[in-house]
TrEMBL record:
InterPro entries, per database record: NST/OST, P-loop_NTPase, Sulfotransferase_dom
Chain sites annotated for binding 3'-phosphoadenylyl sulfate: K117, G118, G119, T120, R121, R198, S206, K323, G324, R325, T326, H327
Protein name: Sulfotransferase
Top EC group: transferase
Lineage: Eukaryota, Metazoa, Chordata, Craniata, Vertebrata
Organism encoding this protein: Hippocampus comes (Tiger tail seahorse)
Pfam families documented for this protein: Sulfotransfer_1
Length: 360
């Protein structure tokens, strides 16, 4: 009876202890599971939000890894595209370096403002390989076309970014629109500005090649480039030629921003030495040089550098067919006249830039 009493007396205690033990383990495990689920849900959520607006544009020129080849002109189109290819970039990696978990939409700290046909898409796609860069895939055209929509709209267009990540977008038209420098300045006095410049004659032909591919009935390059072909008077108001007056456009930017806040990329070197040019941009943005020559290879068929492993894909990839296309053939005499026309403008631009781009 005594033995029974002792056993009877001790058993519930032992059971209670075991129960308590199990409860402790179970609650620790559930806390652990809950935390894991919470963290994973947080990561997925930012990815899903980013992916949800990742639709191909109406023209269907998307290729995996090179998301937004075409300029997006209408506001509705802007709203329909995002930066899905880049969504996976948020999360663990950056957090391990001590950044905050919560990704938010912020106004851009860097802009690729031009120039059209300079190589702006290539630069943006190369830069987005960097884990500390979050770039909008489409061209929002905020400062030139959609300014009335306000900064909240602009912010809502941006990809989510963690603290420490640089948010950026590219709209090549910004460089040449008169109102843009003041508007950009009103948004931020510290914003970093990047311009990819290319020989204005080649750039003009590239521009014309794109125009004629969309509207094959337009007059010849030669007839549009001259006011009077016989006297050789150039029509500098014709958009493909006017865009190439870089000094004139740059002057407007320098009225609002110091030269040190602008970085010029050689469009020619971006093709011959992409890693070198992207390296300098990373320095300018105050980032570690993470995108290097190991990311590129030269594709002989395309005739351009391509990415070994673009963001969101494990396969090598080149830019789409609207980039690096065969140019319209232009009378060499006309080419020479254009080179002569641009010579003083280019010299002025080199002085302003403090950099000689070597255009002949
Ligand atoms: N890696 C790579 N692959 C393909 N194309 C490259 C590359 N790097 C620079 N380029 C040059 O980029 C030119 C197009 O410039 P943009 O992207 O600025 O054009 S756009 O303004 O966005 O329409 C495009 O002009 P075109 O050759 O006239 O098609 C290219 O010369």
């Amino acid at each position: 009876m005594a033995a029974f009493c002792t056993r009877h007396h001790h058993l519930p205690n032992a059971d209670l202890r075991r129960l308590f033990h199990r409860l402790t383990i179970a609650s620790s495990l559930s806390i652990l599971c809950f935390s894991l689920v919470y963290l994973l849900a947080g990561c997925c959520q930012s990815g899903l939000v980013e992916n949800s607006d990742s639709k191909p544009n109406a023209l269907g020129f998307l290729t995996p890894g090179w998301p937004y080849e075409r300029n997006v002109t209408g506001a509705s189109k802007v709203a329909s595209v995002g930066d899905g290819a880049f969504a996976a970039q948020t999360g663990m990696e950056s957090n391990s370096s001590g950044k905050e978990w919560t990704a938010t939409r912020r106004l851009p700290q860097a802009l690729i403002i031009g120039v059209k046909k300079g190589g702006t898409r290539a630069l943006l796609e190369f830069l987005r390989l960097h884990p500390d860069i979050r770039a909008l895939g489409s061209e929002p055209h905020f400062f030139d076309r959609h300014y009335a929509r306000g900064l909240d709209w602009y912010r809502s267009m941006m990809p989510k970014a963690l603290n420490g990540q640089i948010v950026m977008e590219k709209t090549p038209r910004y460089f040449v629109t008169v109102e843009t420098p003041a508007r950009v300045h009103a948004m931020s006095q510290e914003v970093k500005l990047i311009v990819v410049v290319r020989d204005p004659v080649t750039r003009a032909i590239s521009d014309y090649t794109q125009i004629i591919s969309k509207t094959p009935d337009i007059p010849s390059f030669e007839s549009l480039a001259f006011k009077n072909r016989t006297t050789g008077l150039i029509d500098a108001q014709w958009s493909p030629l006017w865009i190439g007056l870089y000094a004139q456009h740059m002057e407007r930017w320098l009225a609002w921003f110091p030269r040190s806040q602008m970085h010029l990329v050689s469009g020619e070197s971006l093709i011959t030495d992409p890693a070198g040019e992207v390296g300098k941009v990373q320095d300018f943005l105050g980032l570690q040089r993470i995108v290097t020559d190991k990311h590129f290879y030269f594709n002989k068929t395309k005739g351009f550098p391509c990415l070994k492993k673009p963001e969101g894909s494990s396969k090598p990839h080149c830019l789409g067919k609207t980039k690096g296309r065969t140019h319209a053939s232009i009378d060499p005499e006309v080419m020479q006249k254009l080179r002569d026309f641009y010579k003083p403008h280019n010299q002025h631009f080199y002085q302003m830039a403090g950099q000689d781009f070597g255009w002949q």
